[in-house]
């Protein structure tokens, strides 16, 4: 991936994947509407009113809820919050994953064993349970939520990164570089990092996806800061009124927004994996085909 | 029993096989040899109808076939899936190359060996197990390990299991795909013996890159290169006196105990041939037509026979016994010396000397001084006229005096380099002399050619050297100059008359390497005249032993030197330096 | 290898225990409330509170507290739910069978479906059928499990009314025998469907990837050359091998199914551990919450252990000697 031609091919293969294009467009549209629409619509999601359970009308495009709050405004604010959590967790957990993964692989020895064993141990219990337990006590705010989720989602990524770095370290071209007198930094930046990029992207996406899911799940369970508007909370509240028709404009749009966000990220991740894998497969095929 | 007619296979745009014709009869083993990537395995799989079917459902569309693979009157390429299933293993079975996971890692050996028996309804499961045990015993598979999983077995044991599995349904056609690859030599030996014992009743197609296995197991051999069969004939002949330049190259590159010459390669021009001969990019005897038209498959024929017709046919192969896909009918005999006689008074005469020198081949003419070696060189070059007999160049009689064309194509290198160049001329003048004489090229072209020729023989190309005189050069350098001079006309045949006997051993080694390299690149034929049979053994493909004007023995270099027949040859060998 | 795993599991158990122990004690505010829950803090008399404090060494060092904590647990005492006025163990043991029923049957179903779908679609890789299955399942995998549950609930129970809205049995119906079983099944159907749908992607994707890997192995060609029927090749040869990764990750599946059941039970008010957690959170019944999570953790660890043993039974390459 060092030379220009290969880079171009790499980018082209990104765009060749329908999943990536579809998911990418979806993600961009969603994010843009969460960021821009609140400016245009000027609804206040917190403002209660006496118009409870209003069906969609000109003033309330998606109607109101049980205490007369504007559902669309809540939906958009929830989207913003989800976006924040997604990006926050994505960045934080990716940094942790890459940092610890590379550290373990490059330093090796006891440090490696220690990091890996810790990860093994924490991963035994599905981390949703740990988050529930901690959140039940803390009722975390958005920031705390990001930290909590990140702390538990980087583990898998670190494992993958470490494995990849280890295998890259064993490649002949790395040995060749060492024999030409390259130092560790050179090898990392020139021979290892470029090969990690697709992996890092997919870890970021994974983190963002899980963050959105967890945020919704915690809201659904009612163990987040009650002042934060979240899709999960909205779904949970609306579920109490499923015998009324309100779920049509309360629950369904929220569920739809949540699903679409998750689907867009899943699609990108999936496409990435496929191009990434087929790329390396193709490479190895060329090697064996002669 | 199995007949393949003009079979083409391509995978997408990639042509894998380009018109294969083969017949394998019952009780016969045909070896298919070739390098990796030649298409050997694809051909084997095609016979089982295994190309792009079960294992590649999505890519089936990319597979295109043409031609026929006929087994028992039916074309395998047009069988339905069910018919194929029926055919596989009950009639046609495989011994696959034993790479990791050729056998299913989670099923026991017993289960896998017995599976074809029961799934083809030849018996109950219990009978299948019984049969499997019998087969495994037959191939000397250790019975204690019958319930083991593949990862618990050694390579040899796995191979035995694969053989037992292949034979359990008593197939009529057996395809052995590299049956001994990745085994140690001793196990390989055992397995080769086992295979030759056990495959007697089948029609066997042996796919291998290992020529020794081909020679041990097969009577006939076909040579595959880039999806095309280039030569097919009796195995012993194909492996000794191949007729296609590719097979000769393959043989020369293969380190085996039956050769004394150094291993040699061939031009590494791997450009994909568009049309025409697949070997064209690497061929040193190509004609213009080779590039555009695929060569016909010709029966091998020695059109010009020397004195001992019968002997030569025995040696090179009977006419019609082999088939060669080449416009030139195989490796061209550049020089044919036919019953050459010449006498100089009563005390010496040359009597009925006959031999051939093929394209790209080194023939050593070994004898004592005064045996007539140099006379032969002179007669060939037309410096003297024979009393009797003919000299043919590229199958044409040579006129006397020799034509200009002949003198371009055939060059002589002399024994004594000091004598062979004029001390009055500069190096440049010496080298350009043939061009001057033949009136070839402008002065600029001549200069360029001179520089190229010097570079070819590893001499400096600077002006200072070009303008120096022979007196400042050593013997080795002078001989290089002489060779450069001979090469400048791009000859096809070199007659080298003791070219190194005046040189030190170290210098001689350099010159010899140089000549061998030139041969590899340009397909130079070479008649190497020497008194040193040890040297002849290292450089020659074939050796002619001459005594008192008569050729007393000839044959492959390793054979003549390791198993001499004539007392004089024995004498020569005994006198050769052994340290 | 085996030993290393066991140590990891023990450490994981220790990790959960320490988390359980430390969380309420290190948080700002009154640890009593964090340990015994809101109900206890509100309704118990001062004397009773003092007694509990003394019993759990709450005024002593953390080490001393931890000792008592472990000792109590060792006796099988998971604490007392003051909100429900029952020992936590009793509460859990009442709801556990429902969760096990739901999770167990969902696991079996989703593994089977995922396996078959994965083998069939991997076998047809690159074809249209494969692509559609893949796309559908990937889409499904993107949905949070509670959303799947909600959608099923709204459509089949609320709109169509084919299934009950919640619960595990019809209350006060007095059904017995077959009628009872039918009733249970009717209540189980939608949650089971939701959980199965949520779990299928895991086993499907795993199987498909493994089938793809296995198809490139030469043993598949060997099997085809032997004239085996496609069904035999797919299920006996490829299937056997593709079973390995799935069985090896069964422990993880148990964990994710339990997590899924938690949300789906809430959606369907199915009286299992999930609903119980929901209730405990709402009532700040911390002893109950802690007890449930501990039981879940223990279940997951045991499942992992069982999986390792199973995997070594199935894969001859792990089974050394
Ligand atoms: S001479 Fe024969 S082998 Fe050489 S390119 Fe022509 S056809 Fe091919």
Note down, in words, how this protein is organized.
- The complex is a heterotrimer of chains A (290), B (579) and C (321).
- Chain A is mainly alpha-helical and 290 residues long.
- Chain A contains ten helices and no strands.
- Chain A is elongated and about 75 Å long.
- Chain A starts with a helix and ends with a helix.
- With 579 residues, chain B is of the alpha/beta class.
- In chain B, 35% of the residues lie in helices and 23% in strands.
- The radius of gyration of chain B is 28 Å and the shape is elongated.
- Chain B starts with a strand and ends with a helix.
- The relative contact order of chain B is 0.08.
- Chain C has a domain at 97-283: Orthogonal Bundle (MetI-like fold).
- Chain C is 78% helix and 1% strand.
- A two-stranded antiparallel sheet of chain C has the order 1-2.
- The longest helix of chain C has 39 residues, at 177-215.
- Chain C starts with a helix and ends in a 7-residue tail after the last helix.
- The mean pLDDT of chain C is 83.
- Classes of the chains: A mainly alpha (290), B alpha/beta (579), C mainly alpha (321).
Question: How is the secondary structure organized here?
Answer:
The complex is a heterotrimer of chains A (290), B (579) and C (321).
Chain A: H1 4-16, H2 18-41, H3 71-107, H4 109-124, H5 127-138, H6 142-169, H7 172-179, H8 184-221, H9 231-239, H10 251-289
Helix pairs in contact in A: 2-3, 2-10, 3-4, 3-6, 3-8, 4-6, 6-8, 8-9, 8-10, 9-10
Chain B: E1 2-11, E2 14-24, E3 29-33, H1 40-47, E4 63-71, E5 74-75, H2 81-87, E6 92-95, H3 109-119, H4 125-138, H5 155-167, E7 173-177, H6 185-198, E8 203-208, H7 211-217, E9 220-225, E10 228-234, H8 235-238, H9 245-253, H10 288-292, E11 297-299, H11 309-316, E12 323-325, E13 333-344, E14 348-358, E15 362-366, H12 373-381, E16 388-393, E17 396-397, H13 404-409, E18 410-413, H14 417-420, H15 427-438, H16 443-456, H17 463-466, H18 475-487, E19 493-497, H19 505-522, E20 525-530, H20 533-539, E21 542-547, E22 550-556, H21 557-562, H22 567-575
Parallel strand pairs in B: 3-8, 3-9, 6-7, 7-8, 15-20, 15-21, 18-19, 19-20
Antiparallel strand pairs in B: 1-2, 1-4, 4-5, 9-10, 10-12, 11-12, 13-14, 13-16, 16-17, 21-22
Helix pairs in contact in B: 3-4, 3-5, 4-5, 5-6, 15-16, 15-18, 16-18, 18-19
Chain C: H1 2-26, H2 31-43, H3 46-55, H4 62-74, E1 80-81, E2 86-87, H5 88-123, H6 128-142, H7 145-159, H8 177-215, H9 218-225, H10 230-248, H11 250-267, H12 273-282, H13 286-314
Antiparallel strand pairs in C: 1-2
Helix pairs in contact in C: 1-2, 1-13, 5-6, 5-8, 5-10, 5-11, 5-13, 6-8, 7-8, 7-11, 8-10, 8-11, 9-10, 11-12, 11-13, 12-13
The complex binds iron/sulfur cluster.
